[in-house]
Design goal:
The protein is an alpha/beta fold. The strands form four sheets. A six-stranded mixed sheet has the order 1-2-15-12-10-11, with helices on both faces. A five-stranded parallel sheet has the order 6-5-7-8-9, with helices on both faces. Strands 3-4 form a two-stranded antiparallel sheet. Helix 13 links the parallel strand 10 and strand 11. Helix 5 packs across helix 16 and helix 11 packs parallel to helix 16. The longest helix is centred in the last third of the chain and has 22 residues.
Length: 526
């Protein structure tokens, strides 16, 4: 039987509170056993990746208590319950099925008489058939010309995840001969965004993907109208240049204004939708259906590993538990995501939404106020750019901020140059290594301005290279990490009521029916 209880009612949680400040990572990584710790504190992930936590402030006693917490909170059992189709999203009374888009690890899930795994497989096939027809020239524009460009119109999870995944694989695809179409994205309701993108495109050879589950999202429909206006002014037939990713009941479905519509459902939240048609359409058009399937396979492999009850063999679960220890015992307020790969330039922005929109909650699954902190503030930038930006605060600021490094032994393009005896890629990896040790061990100096306290904990996810399978595994790792943390905190990680209030007030402003401070602020800008 699954029990949903607040974290502070669990005995392992209370035990964990007594282990604050127990480990000096500086001492651990300066000791004669440091090499053994680095070797031992590693967990194999999907997609050829490895999670290393040797620079985290944990030891065997803390790990044992975290394992007890995982068992007492029934974290893996709750994950299995989710996979079996239980209503985990209590706020919206929905199942949570994003893992089902890439594989089936539980029982058959049927909703409204439809087997959902079969539904997702069928939509992937429909997208693949459409993409293949576009690439082969079977589907062409008004002049009989092949399409060369795709542009996604969406906001939030309809933009951040797919954009991050596209950028992550763009150079890989070009190097490996699978680059089919250039992709662009329009998200912001700021007209300068749509204008700048539209003016940069050859509209006659562009397919626009409108992503809106309800078909009523204000920002997305505003940008759709903006783009349709551009197409009409160019003398183009909008129905030859637009497809939709939406629900089967939305006004965008079965609409003659669109070349095709591909379907999603209410069981996949926007920030978890990169492995659904939301990511599938743009990635299949850009790189081909085979690449998208490899991406799904990597995510599926990591999803399966997340079922292991041994936390030392389950990277997502262990990462989640260490994060809980850092947030609720060590009282660290933030986490920095530091990918040493330019291809992951927008990955921190996606994880920011994934984590903060999921676990930025102050009430439990039943709407009751909780008495402990939950999700951290997430931010980040690619290295080595970040080193010349906010690392100053990370090294010498008053707050300790846990760090998550992501790095690869090889770059995607294979292009490189030897300068002063080493390649650029070796220099990049040397910087990762140096930063981990610098953050952990610090440096003493007679001049306080040049002293580094150290004791900044970090983890490292690494692999040979960033490819579709490793990217899928990386994405699934973080999705599952966020899920497990939500389970610990007994919050609903799958709704986002905090997004709604501002949107409702914006509609009030636009209606003109306002007074007080809202009206006063509106007068400043409108």
């Amino acid at each position: 039987m699954i029990n949903w209880t607040n974290a502070d009612s669990l005995s392992a949680w209370k035990k964990l509170q007594s282990l604050k400040g127990m480990v000096s990572v500086a001492k651990e990584l300066s000791s004669s056993d440091a090499a053994k710790r680095v070797a031992d504190y590693s967990v194999k992930m999907g997609g050829g990746l490895t999670y290393n936590y040797a620079a985290k402030q944990v030891n065997e006693q803390i790990l044992k208590t975290l394992a007890e917490l995982a068992d007492e909170a029934q974290l893996v059992e709750k994950y299995q319950d989710l996979l079996n189709g239980s209503v985990i999203n209590t706020g919206e009374k929905r199942m949570v099925l994003h893992q089902l888009t890439r594989g089936q690890l539980g029982k058959d899930v049927v909703a409204d008489g439809v087997n959902k795994r079969e539904f997702y497989i069928n939509e992937v096939k429909r997208i693949a058939d459409f993409a293949n027809d576009v690439h082969s020239g079977k589907l062409v524009n008004e002049k009989g010309e092949k399409y060369t460009t795709v542009c996604q119109i969406g906001i939030g999870g309809s933009d951040l995840g797919p954009r991050a995944m596209y950028l992550a694989l763009e150079n890989w695809a070009k190097k490996n001969g699978t680059f089919k179409m250039e992709a662009h994205f329009i998200s912001n309701v700021d007209p300068d965004d749509a204008s700048a993108v539209a003016k940069s495109l050859d509209l006659s050879k562009t397919i626009f993907i409108l992503v809106s589950k309800s078909g009523t999202t204000l920002e997305t429909l505003t940008n759709e109208s903006f783009v349709k206006d551009y197409l009409k002014k160019a003398g183009l037939d909008t129905s030859k240049h637009m497809i939709a990713v939406t629900s089967e009941t939305s006004p965008l479905a079965h609409n003659p204004d669109y070349m095709a519509a591909f379907y999603m459902d209410d069981y996949i939240g926007g920030r978890y939708s990169s492995t659904s048609g939301v990511g599938g359409a743009v990635l299949s058009l850009a790189f081909g259906p085979k690449v998208f399937q490899e991406f799904l396979d990597g995510a599926a492999e990591e999803d399966k590993l997340a079922l292991n009850k041994d936390i030392t063999k389950n990277a997502a679960l262990l990462d989640a538990l260490i994060g809980v220890y850092e947030r609720n015992v060590q009282n660290f307020p933030s986490t920095a995501i530091l990918p040493y790969s330019q291809a992951l330039s927008r990955f921190p922005a996606h994880l920011q939404q994934l984590d903060m929109e999921s676990n930025g909650k102050s009430v439990n699954r039943f709407g009751e106020k909780i008495n402990y902190v939950t999700g951290p503030v997430i931010f980040g930038e690619p290295g080595t750019n970040g080193q010349h930006s906010f690392y100053q605060l990370l090294h010498q600021g008053t707050d300790i901020i846990p760090l998550q490094f992501i790095a690869f032994k090889k770059n995607q393009t294979g292009d490189d140059v030897v300068i002063e005896g080493s390649t650029s890629q070796v220099k990049l990896c040397a910087n990762v290594t140096a930063q981990i040790i610098a953050f952990a061990c610090g440096k003493t100096d007679e001049n306080p301005n040049k002293a580094f306290a150290g004791e900044r904990p970090s983890s490292l996810i690494y692999g040979e290279d960033l490819n579709p399978k490793s990217l899928g595994a990386l994405l699934a790792h973080y999705e599952n990490k966020v899920m497990f943390q939500g389970f610990v905190w007994n919050i609903n990680s799958f709704d986002q009521e905090g997004v709604q209030l501002g949107k409702k007030l914006a509609k009030t402003v636009l209606s003109g029916q306002m007074d007080g401070a809202l009206k006063a602020y509106a007068r400043l800008l409108i």
